[in-house]
Request: fold
Amino acid sequence: MSLPRFTLSAFGDEIAVNLFEQLTVLNELQIDHLELRTVWGKNVLDLDDAEAGQVASLAAKMGVRVSAIGSPIGKSPIDEPMEGELRKLDRILRTAAIVGTRRIRIFSYYPPDISTNAHYDDYVELAVERLAVLADHAAVDGCELLLENEKEIVGDTLDRCARMLDALQRPNLRFAWDPANFVQVGEAEVTARGWPVLGGFVGYVHIKDAFLRDGSVCAAGEGDGQVGALLAHLQDSGYRGVLALEPHLAVAGHSSGFSGPQGMAYAAKALRALMAQEGCVEGGD
Reply:
């Protein structure tokens, strides 16, 4: 029986603003998938049909496929009307269809007070209700939503992510595991503790690492995110999915990050070294 194969992707806006430069570096790094978040300085939510068509055309010309849409949906106040979120989702669904992907990254909303997460448990049920609406809406178009853990939103800790996913039980809503984001909310031994409760929901993985001591970001395997152990669990589970590089090595912003061509090359080298150490096979989608 052949080993599970992992597909490498990368956030193009971590490399450059211009799409051609993003794709050129991906070609040089032999990464043939792009996670689309911002391009030409525009968030993916703001692309019109013509611009989405330009992305699709140039990516195809350069032999790169779009692995997922890195949408900002769910990075908004939890008490805002759902009508606005559904309009955003419709725009993203349209763009996803044009660029040729069915995967859309989402989040689980900001509570009214984000100065502390001590009260975030109070918002789990409401977050589940809103996410269920999004998932059911996306299912009509045959699209898969990828719920990412993130600091300052309801789904920031292992426990709250597990509780939301247990409650949702939507076949088209999967978990996008980000090791660094868990570390940055103080989750220690995140893979050892998190895999038993979240492993069955994983449908996508973002690759960056971080240090518990101060939350600073580093390349895979250098920090406290237990990325190597995560790769081993993915391999053992038969995961045949995406590892999307989001290194944040130069700028680690809350809504985006930047690494530059050299930073992305360093991050890709670190990930491939960790994959080789864990016996992971690259290739295929």
